[in-house]
Amino acid sequence: MAATARARFVHNRSRRRAADESSDEQQDASSSSSSDDDGGDEEEEEMEVEGSEEEEAVADEPAAREPPAAAGRGGRKGPITISLKKVCKVCKKTGHEAGFKGAVYIDCPMKPCFLCKMPGHTTLTCPHRVAMEHGVIPAPRRNTNTSLDYVFQSQVKGKISMVKPRFLVPNQLECGNIKFHQRRVTCLEFHPTKNNVLLSGDKKGLLGIWDYVKLHEKITYDSVHSCILNSMKFDTANDGVLYTASSDGTISSTDLDTGIGSPLLNLNPDGWSGPSTWRMIYGMDLNTEKGLLLVADSFGFLYLLDRRSKERIGQPILIHKKGSKVTGLHCNPAQPEVLLSSGNDHFARIWDTRKLDPKSALASLAHGRVVNSGYFSPRSGNKIMTTCQDNRIRVWDYIFGNLESPSREIVHSHDFNRHLTPFKAEWDPKDYSETVAVIGRYISENYNGVALHPIDFIDTSTGKLLAEVMDPDITTISPVNKLHPQDEILATGSSRSIFIWKPKSDIDPTEERTSQKVKEYVYGSGSRKKPNGKHDNSSDDDSDGGGGKSKKAKKTRFTHTAKGKGKSKA
Hints:
Layout lengths: L1 H15 L6 H13 L4 H7 L52 E3 L2 E3 L20 H4 L16 H10 L15 E7 L6 E6 L6 E6 L4 E5 L6 E4 L7 E7 L2 E9 L3 E6 L5 E6 L14 E7 L4 E6 L3 E6 L4 E8 L7 E6 L6 E6 L3 E6 L10 E4 L4 E6 L7 E5 L3 E5 L11 E4 L14 E2 L8 E5 L4 E3 L2 E3 L2 E5 L4 E7 L9 E4 L6 E5 L2 E6 L6 H6 L3 E6 L4 E2 L5 E2 L22 E5 L3 E3 L1
Parallel strand pairs: 3-33
Antiparallel strand pairs: 1-2, 3-32, 4-5, 5-6, 6-7, 8-9, 9-10, 10-11, 12-13, 13-14, 14-15, 16-17, 17-18, 18-19, 20-21, 21-22, 22-23, 24-25, 25-28, 26-27, 28-29, 29-37, 30-31, 31-32, 33-36, 34-35
């Protein structure tokens, strides 16, 4: 009986063995197990198969009793080695570690520096992190003595103030609209006539309007676009009309009072038929003199629209590599027919819109990686500033000079991942000297044990960091930043929230301790307050209600005040 039980056990074990084992080996194991009848009852309880070169435990026994595969003859286990050496998660080598330690991120020394992309040092010891102006040498001025040079000297340069005005840093958090949007903020724009009104767009295509002085006056329209709202421009003839560009391939003219939008351009009239044919719109600008709306898609083409007749002019023109995305467009403020485009093909190009042709670019500015944005200086239009994914801000001081290389390259942390809105350095529209720019920072800094992502104010003429603005209540990254055209106000988009910053008032330190600045927050439709006072980070798609042509979100009546002060390190 015992022999029969063993034979049945061996038969079941043969099913679980590898397919390449022959039936002869199974039979040998069976015969050797059944021939040993001494102490058969004990063997049946232990269920061990003897006669083979390696001992195996029965599947009916607990897994913990199974000897390891490395066990040798006689059931003797092999040695177990435990290594206490530090292993890097990036390069898998020993002797060092990489990652966050508290609020400080330590990168792998075997990889190039994440900030300047150069080998030989880590991000923590990068000289550009110690001093942003490290290695920034202004290019020598070249006197071309051409007719264009004399035109610049007589007409353009006279508009630039020779005395640099006092620079006020909006370094104190004034108020915030917490989770105003259901998805991350993608663009911001101040109203041209209503100084206290800020417009914002998000990844879902929602358009938000917020009066940050009255706090509670806010409206959201979720029927303008079906996905990412990438760019906004006001109609200069009617400030109640807003032009918006979206990744759904449409340009819309939206009435801000009703939220009803009329499509001006639809690049996907047949709907979705796959990513190879779906066109998205990122770049858009307005030529006010000619009444033209310039639009560029994700395949490298430029479209011209008549703002008055709302019709397309001519055929699309290829301005960047075919199949590459045009990330931005900007018309020169002094000469609107001069256009600057930036693209995914690692180039920024200058065009004359009066004679457009695929090979008629006035200049092609080469970059190391994708160009997130490119802007002419806001008053004279004489300078160019671009933001590139290689962690470089490039500045050209003279558009009529040598454009083969920039006047200076400023190393700055804005190389981001795909879950963030692209960082874009923008000029301060109030700065007559055309030197101040603002941009968010990707790499976090340790401020009293908290990892914060500052917003940087940079002097583009020297590369120096003028100020870094942060607040302990904002621990998320702020890639979208917009300076007010008249007031000393900074608006920032961080995740789904919007914040307003103003300069810190000059008061006596003793008075500052007794009367702390109160920061006011209003909570949007995407935020829910829990009983413990914290807020739900969930983003429900149905929080704005059902469908419709024009929808307004319910105005939130709940406000919350928190005492505290923003920080600024100049």
